[in-house]
Write a structure and sequence with these properties.
single chain; alpha/beta; 33 strands; binds zinc ion
């Protein structure tokens, strides 16, 4: 309890935290009681007794703040302390009276603590074996004998659960929350099983709320509803493995609540999940509003969000405040899958930028805390809400390697948040921090993860082919990467036969290429360049299916210009193209502006033959692009769509046929100074 109470009370005046604080602080100012608006300074100067300031002693021994059920209980404990100080000659009778008077007017003992335990962008990273974190500014790295700095092993849902357990044990009241992308873009050991492993282990961890993120919609609304409510996947036999891994069977669904305040089903006009959840703390109700970014439709397979509408983040939250207040709720937490960027310390906020700054600035003054995500950044900010009050705005990086501890102080009378202290904590797998109490992983969760690994392992370790050298996502100046070319070639191969679509060119979005194919080190016996299904999956984890459509030549030119349309990244978003297709462009990152015309007229060719504006071309894309993903609306205009196999299967088949695969010359897309 002590370790919770100290930062709670001190945080209103000091930015420091940690148990060592009380012993090292210099005494100054007046002895004070309470917190926030209820803080009252006495006329008694703070002073050290036995090396500890009176203010700190009050916190340590009287434990003002959240520990007492009533102000009266606090006052009787304090009176005993003051009597002891008088008897010891530490304070005079006059000072004792002044202390009692100030304490009586303060809100000490009229408050409650609620510890919010938060993370974001977990992305199904249930197994921490290959997860690590490095932050030089925070001293989070391991030095090698040569002076190199290596990341520190961190994460794993079993270690997260161990840390969560400890944080809960320290606090009288707590809530565990996630700010979206809990699932989706997951490693094979969760993705193969439709992320049921993530839901089941989060059930065991004790998650309370998950605000939906964009990736929650990867497989569409119906699949997301299944993950909430349980039951087996309608077609995939990999679902419902509970009997083999030690979880309830059939799949039980999430024991936590998905929240979606800004996601409305167009058919019903209602949100697809509750807009908020309530946590009651000793009679004080705290609301957790959850939502995803408004821009979700532009980054999710359109089929996944069909029939859904995504509202403005701040407006969606603000619209709930009146209702919450009528229900007697004053303490409001927003969990939002949108964020910012703040380079530097995981507990800093210097140079913060990004959408969340504007969103927080438009949030109603009643909002007390914002847990954010999506950018995979770690930060610990205070940003002004619409009434100018600086409130904590946090993010815990990604993949469960950090957890944010946020201690809220609630006033029993006003039911509002009157104090908050936040800190990002490392999910330390190896006791790198060298604490007396290393995190103890939850062994039940460890076993469930190991069982899922065992089920996935034969699939992951199957060798699908080989490479002669590293094949990477690194793009040249023109925007082409060797791995992008291989993926496009694999997709064209899978769809070229007339009965498979008769495609002549394939386009691949660069954002869908999630890892490089690395060539093993020169260690003896490891130089064979084998590629496993697990590696292929890591490159293409989204299970998009292939689609073939007919585009006119003019539409192909329009499609290529959309790579530099307004709204794309400043460097453009260059589609990777298959063998036999080529074109020239004059876009130069940092010198060209978005929205111009950059494709050289007449330069696009298929098998050496110029693309004709009026000609018809069968074009392959993945299902994400097929419905206009990444801003490529031209794909929507295609005719005669034909569905194909899953992208990773096409990739696997290609390796089976073409191995060893060598990185290509990256000469399909050519950048020129001027088209001329
Ligand atoms: Zn996201």
């Amino acid at each position: 309890m002590q370790s919770m109470i100290k930062p709670l009370v001190l945080a209103s005046t000091m930015a420091l935290s940690g148990a060592a604080f009380a012993a090292t602080v210099a005494c100054g100012g007046a002895v004070s009681f309470g917190e926030g608006a209820g803080k009252v300074a006495s006329a008694v100067a703070d002073r050290a007794v036995d090396g500890v300031c009176l203010n700190a002693q009050i916190i340590d021994t009287v434990a003002e703040g959240a520990r007492y059920a009533s102000h009266g209980e606090f006052m009787s404990a304090l009176t005993r302390q003051i009597d002891a100080w008088r008897a010891a000659g530490v304070v005079s009778a006059r000072e004792a009276g002044a202390l009692t008077s100030a304490a009586a007017r303060s809100n000490a003992g009229r408050t409650l603590g609620l510890r919010v335990i938060a993370f974001n962008d977990f992305h199904g990273n249930i197994d921490g074996a290959n997860l690590s974190l490095r932050s030089d500014i925070d001293g989070i790295y391991r030095s090698t004998t040569t002076g190199a700095r290596l990341p520190v092993p961190a994460g794993g849902v079993d270690y997260m659960a161990g840390l969560v357990r400890r944080l809960r044990d320290e606090a009288a009241h707590s809530a565990v929350v996630s700010a979206g992308d809990l699932i989706g873009g997951s490693p094979l050991n969760s993705a193969l099983f439709h992320d049921e492993p993530t839901i089941e282990t989060m059930n065991l961890l004790g998650l309370d709320f998950d605000a939906v993120g964009n990736h929650e919609f990867d497989e569409g609304k119906d699949e997301l509803l299944r993950l909430q409510h349980g039951g087996c996947h309608p077609t995939d036999a990999n679902s419902c493995q509970g009997a083999r891994v030690g979880t309830p069977s059939p799949f039980e669904g999430a024991r936590f609540q998905f929240l979606a305040a800004n996601v409305t089903d167009s058919a019903t006009g209602r949100t697809i999940f509750p807009a908020y959840g309530i946590r009651e703390v000793d009679g004080v109700r705290v609301a957790f509003i959850g939502m995803t970014l408004e821009g979700t439709p532009s980054i999710v397979t359109p089929a996944g969000i069909e029939g859904l509408q995504f509202g403005d983040e701040a407006e969606s939250a603000n619209a709930l405040i009146g209702r919450l207040r009528r229900e007697g709720v004053e303490a409001v937490v927003v969990l939002i899958h949108e964020g910012g960027v703040a380079p530097g310390s995981i507990n800093g906020c210097s140079g913060v930028s990004g959408p969340v700054v504007d969103i927080v600035g438009r949030l109603h003054g009643a909002v007390d805390l914002v847990v954010t995500g999506h950018t995979h950044q770690a930060y610990n900010c205070r940003l002004p809400n619409a009434e100018g009050r600086a409130i904590p705005v946090t993010s815990a990086g990604s993949f469960g390697r950090l957890i944010t501890r946020i201690d809220l102080t609630l006033d029993r009378a006003s039911r509002d948040v009157i104090g908050a202290a936040a800190e990002n904590l490392l999910v330390d797998r190896v006791n790198y921090l060298n604490t007396a109490t290393p995190i103890q992983p939850d062994t039940k969760i460890t076993s469930v993860v190991a069982n899922y690994n065992a089920l996935a392992e034969p699939i992951a370790n199957r060798v699908i082919g080989s490479i002669t050298a590293p094949i990477t996502r690194s793009a040249n100046a023109a925007g082409e990467s060797a791995l992008g070319a291989v993926i496009a070639d694999a997709q064209l191969r899978a769809t070229a036969a007339p009965e498979r679509g008769g495609a002549v060119v394939a386009f691949m979005n660069p954002g869908g290429i999630r890892a490089d194919l690395t060539y093993p080190s020169s260690n003896a016996g490891e130089g064979d360049g084998q590629v496993t299904y697990g590696e292929a999956f890591t490159v293409q984890p989204f299970a998009n299916s292939l689609v073939v459509k007919t585009l006119t030549g003019a539409q192909i030119y329009a499609l290529l210009e959309q790579q530099w349309a307004l709204g794309q990244p400043a460097s453009g978003r260059i589609l990777q193209v298959s063998e036999g297709f080529g074109y020239r462009h004059s876009f130069r990152p940092s010198q060209s502006v978005l929205g111009g015309q950059y494709v050289c007229p007449g330069s696009a060719t298929v098998d050496g033959v110029p693309v004709e504006a009026g000609g018809d071309y069968r074009v392959t894309m993945n299902s994400f692009l097929a419905s206009g993903g990444d801003g490529f609306g031209v794909f929507n205009l295609g005719r005669d769509a034909l569905g194909g196999e899953v992208d990773v299967d096409a990739f696997t088949d290609y390796f089976a046929e073409r191995s060893p695969v060598a990185p290509g010359a990256r000469d399909r897309i050519v950048q020129v100074a001027a088209c001329g």
